[in-house]
Amino acid sequence: MSSGNQTFLIGKVSATHGVRGQLRITSFSGDMDSFMALRSVMIKKPGGGMETLAVAEAKAHGKKIILSLKGYTDINDVLHLVGREIYVLRDQLPLLSDGEYYWCDLLGLQVMTEDGDILGELVDIISTGSNDVYVVHGGGDKEILIPALDDVVLDVDTVAGRMTVSLPEGLLDL
């Protein structure tokens, strides 16, 4: 079980939005709703360290999030935040149902076949709309794209740090 004090990267400030100090956020969480319940965010400073800022409002805007911070009401107040990463404490994230995971819990898992063959490390997740696709780096330059489907992903064990998959026939030949 993860500690409530653990920080997780959930997005990045991609731009300002309007002139009233709002920020356009690219979400890395895979779940837009996780932003809606946030009370505060931590924004990474250029030299390291974190700055905790109170959230006034977060709302979906297409595939982005529009984030308003308390005390920031003008575009000039937030220009310096563009390009920075956004983190949250684990205890601020909504609880998920069984079989659901935050991307930050999946990244870094060792991916193996049901026969025990190690495919590599899950290094990225691509959101395609219909289903996510897991990017797994094997040895060398080998990259495997695995669809995140119930009949492909057999087991996820975040405590043990592994994911077991049943690859569609011919996937490794691509």
Strand order of the largest sheet: 1-2-5-4-3-6
Extract low-pLDDT stretches: none
Oligomeric state of the chains present here: single chain
**Classification by helices and strands:** mainly beta
Strand content: over 45%
Distance between the termini: 37 Å
Question: Mind explaining what this structure looks like?
Answer:
One of its GO terms (cellular component) is ribosome. InterPro entries: PRC_barrel-like_sf (IPR011033), PRC_RimM (IPR056792), RimM (IPR011961), RimM_N (IPR002676), RimM_N_sf (IPR036976), Transl_B-barrel_sf (IPR009000). Keywords: Chaperone, Cytoplasm, Ribosome biogenesis, rRNA processing. One of its GO terms (molecular function) is ribosome binding. It is a single chain. The mean pLDDT is 89. The chain is elongated. 7% of the residues lie in helices and 45% in strands. It is mainly beta. The relative contact order is 0.17.
What key phrases describe this protein's structure?
3 helices; 174 residues; mainly beta; 12 strands; 6-stranded mixed sheet; Elongation Factor Tu (Ef-tu), domain 3; Ribosome maturation factor RimM; 7% helix; SH3 type barrels; 6-stranded antiparallel barrel
